[in-house]
Amino acid sequence: MAFLTWSRDFEMGIPEMDEQHKKWLDLLNAFYIHIGNDDFQERMVELIDGVLSYTKYHFSEEEALMASINYPAIGEQRSMHGDIVKRIEEFKTKAGEGKLIISMPLTAELKKWFKEHILIEDMKYAQYLKENR
Questions:
Q1: Which CATH class is domain 41-131?
Q2: Domain-by-domain residue ranges, the chain?
Q3: Residue 109: Cβ within 10 Å count
Q4: I want to staple 94 with a disulfide (CB 3.0 to 4.6 A). Which of 3, 47, 89, 99 is the partner?
Q5: How does pLDDT run across 79-127, given as a tens digit for each residue?
Q6: Backbone dihedral region of 113: left (phi > 0), alpha (psi from -120 to 50 degrees) or beta?
């Protein structure tokens, strides 16, 4: 069972960002799928690191796009992105110390965040781009 399935609702109409969001979802799904595996504890830091690396890459690409279109709420997006990266880094630290407990509330939080960030926040700059082309 997948963590979250891609749907057209997530499509922003910006092909590069849509592809990056799909890749990000694939990484989150891979993490989620491995939760039940016997080797999950050993692989958790590696899996989180993959999510963290791609998240940083994606956010830098997204912020560069926002800067190129003079998106007025780029500061708010950068702040949200920073909060997300910090949260993932905290997960990684806890996992490395053997203190991260993966639970249904944690995975529900990640799912909610992914959906809301794309469907609400990212759609704002997609709309701005469409209106200002």
A1: mainly alpha
A2: 41-131
A3: 12
A4: 99
A5: 999 999 998 898 888 888 877 777 666 677 778 888 888 999 999 999 9
A6: alpha
Residue that the structure tokens 């990684």 belong to: 92
* pTM for the model: 0.87
Spell out the SS3 assignment of the chain.
Answer: CCCCCCCHHHCCCCHHHHHHHHHHHHHHHHHHHHCCCCCHHHHHHHHHHHHHHHHHHHHHHHHHHHHHCCCCCHHHHHHHHHHHHHHHHHHHHHHHCCCCCCCHHHHHHHHHHHHHHHHHHHHHHHHHHHHCC
Phi-psi sector, 13: left (phi>0), alpha (psi -120 to 50), beta:
left
Q: How many CB atoms lie within 10 A of CB 62?
A: 23
Q: Which two tokens stand for residue 11?
A: 């499509």
